[in-house]
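Chapter review: from sequence to fold.
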Amino acid sequence: MTKDKILNYGYDMRRTIMPKWIGDTVSIRVSWIERLKEYTSQEGYNLGMIMKFIQKGLTDPSKDVFAKDCLKEPLSAAQQWVLLNIYLGSEVPEILRKKGVDENAPEMLELPKSFLNEKFDPLEMMAKMNPLAFMPRSKMFGGKSESNEQEAPSEDEEGDLLDS
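The token string follows.
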């Protein structure tokens, strides 16, 4: 029988190898990630459906294959959050990619007040919201991966972000 591996994450969304008795962690089972992958491969990549599936304990009563309860206890809010971030931290599925359309970044009608703050750093804000998005897969899953690490835009590229 295959053993269901447990991955531990800190509240800062960084994966840790420290046992939970040393520090506060959020535990995620690899089987949860696999069930989520199976669900999206069969039901599609609708973000609302994915979040609802996670919130309902990895079940979807409207789908026969996923209607049966699969967890002994409900997922905590932190486990739901980490699971969603792990899943979304991977690459964009091929079926969702639309080259040309994905590169169009529509301007906001009204800028958020925090944006007008002179200390505003969008990359720092994004890293705080989802550190997995800025972490190479090799660090996230502990395995080796090719050098696909994302780099921060150069100052020339950052200048392109603001037209005004």
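Two observations follow directly from the output. Residues 6-92+108-138 form one domain. The helical segments are 30-43, 47-55, 77-88, 122-129, 137-141, 155-161.
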